[in-house]
Task: structure prediction
Amino acid sequence: MEVAGYAVQVFKDKDAVARAAADVFVNLAPQPHESPRPFRVVLAGGTTPQALYALLASAEYRNRVAWDQVLFFFGDERAVPPDHPDSNYRRANDALFRPLDISGKNIYQMRADRPDLDAAAADYERVLQSAFEGARVPHFDLIFLGMGADGHTASLFPGSSALAECKRLVVPVTDAPKPPPRRLTLTIPVLNAARLVLFMVVGADKAQTLREVLKGTVSPDQYPAKYVRPGPERLAWLVDEAAGGTL
Ligand code: 6PG
Result:
């Protein structure tokens, strides 16, 4: 369905959301029999994508993608070591990279655990510019995003100065209300340059915020997910009934 111009698909539960996301992924990604082409994807943090990763790594999906052509990036990362349970990298590594034996050269970690977050942000920005042949703003093939109950996405939180960033591609965050407070995040211009952004939102605790983000008139500064507007046909919301059943 369309809600205020957004493509919104409501599924019965989070597993159905994950399956829909996995189907989009395998339909867009390079197939094993195809001629090689790089496919650059940004992974979302948090817990929602775990079911997606498990599906992509499953016997049902794993053989439908030329994984050696898929380059994995991160939308944000917490300032914890890469082997910490809260690390977005660790979660993807355990559920996706290791089971699929993804080569380390195809994984672009955000090292938010470095003491100098500004330097780490600048380094990741150089990684992006190199991976996109020097393009001023990278155009990712697919960006997965989650949304918090406060309307944040990636590590772009309500009222943050990072929301106004229009030059840098990656910025440090030191006051995130969702622990840990220190993080790195892609900025709005990068999210809006994607060929396709897929939000995955599940859970009744996000229902009111989802209505506000999709139909409300409150400033995006209060609900940062509203800033993600890559353009027609380039944004879709995959939500479960608990989050989107009353849209
Ligand atoms: C993070 C995420 C964050 C997440 C939302 C939803 O590192 O915290 O990038 O933006 O996507 O908070 O998290 P859940 O999927 O766990 O609800």
The chain has a mean pLDDT of 96. The longest helix spans residues 14-28. DSSP finds seven helices and ten strands in the chain.
